[in-house]
From TrEMBL:
Gene3D superfamilies: 2.60.120.40. PANTHER family: COMPLEMENT C1Q TUMOR NECROSIS FACTOR-RELATED PROTEIN 2-LIKE, EMILIN ELASTIN MICROFIBRIL INTERFACE-LOCATED PROTEIN ELASTIN MICROFIBRIL INTERFACER. Residues 40-114, 121-248 form the C1q domain. It comes from Mytilus edulis (Blue mussel). GO terms for cellular component: extracellular region. It is found in: Secreted. The lineage of its organism: Eukaryota, Metazoa, Spiralia, Lophotrochozoa, Mollusca. This is C1q domain-containing protein.
């Protein structure tokens, strides 16, 4: 039960109106006629479709994913392979293509007929990871040769030189970790085409570790390595490592 009290000097008509509106709202909520949320989920456009049979495609053919699992809002047509937005807003688009017969995969997501995003085989993405197996004593300006290669997709990294060469132009995530040995100052840097790009510097302690993770724009043929900025020992045994991956 609700009770109302009007203070002296207030506006009784306005307060009575507000009170009556609150009562009406509470009655509506109690009866279930007042609801909240973003509307019926069935109004949200969504679809999922798969490809049942193998296809041989020519350039710029639309892939018609013919087995429809979900088509909420009926925006997708399996006859054309086209999804038409039934309302304005943000959409999450996902597309997967598997190539057949050993032929290079070349597909793209199209928006209104224009190439929006390429889909390429993951093996086309340059990436490497290498660790240092043995402990080294370095002089200033020496390239650290991470000699145990775990991954070398695109063959851009050379364990003989310690240099990663970009095999395609784009953005790369670079990661380098160095652990010092013997209580010396850790003094190294990431080098791009021979120039000091980012320092890794640590105090004079045994087992000092520094890591740098820059995102770099590299042109095809650019060279990245980790070099010593001074004389110090570097721990091997996988405590020091170097990696890069093409991201866009």
């Amino acid at each position: 039960m609700l009770a109302k009290q009007v203070e002296a000097g207030s506006c009784p008509k306005l307060e009575n109106k507000i009170f009556d509106n609150l009562v009406d709202m509470m009655v509506a909520i109690k009866s279930g006629s007042q609801t909240s949320g973003n509307g019926n989920e069935k109004d949200r456009p969504a679809f999922t479709a798969t490809l049942q049979s193998h296809l041989t495609l020519s350039k710029d053919n639309t892939i018609k994913y013919d087995r429809v699992i979900l088509n909420q809002g009926r925006g997708y047509s399996p006859k054309t392979g086209i999804f038409t937005a039934t309302k304005s807003g943000l959409y999450l688009i996902s597309a997967t293509v598997m190539s057949n017969g050993g032929i290079a995969l070349g597909a793209y997501i199209s928006k209104n007929g224009a190439n929006l995003m390429n889909l390429k085989k993951e093996k086309d993405r340059p990436a490497f990871t290498a660790t240092l197996a043995r402990t080294l004593t370095l002089m200033k300006g020496i390239t650290i040769k991470y000699d145990t290669v775990i991954l070398n997709q695109g063959r851009g990294y050379s364990p003989k030189t310690g240099i990663f060469t970009a095999t395609k132009t784009g953005l790369y995530l670079i990661s380098a970790t160095v652990m010092s040995k013997g209580g010396a100052y850790l003094d190294a840097y990431i080098s791009k085409n021979g120039a000091n790009l980012m320092n890794l510097y640590g105090p004079q302690i045994h087992g000092g570790t520094k890591t740098a993770n820059p995102v770099l724009h590299l042109e095809k043929g650019d060279k990245v390595s980790v070099r010593s900025g001074g004389s110090f020992g570097v721990y091997g045994g996988t405590y020091s490592y170097f990696s890069a991956v093409y991201i866009a």
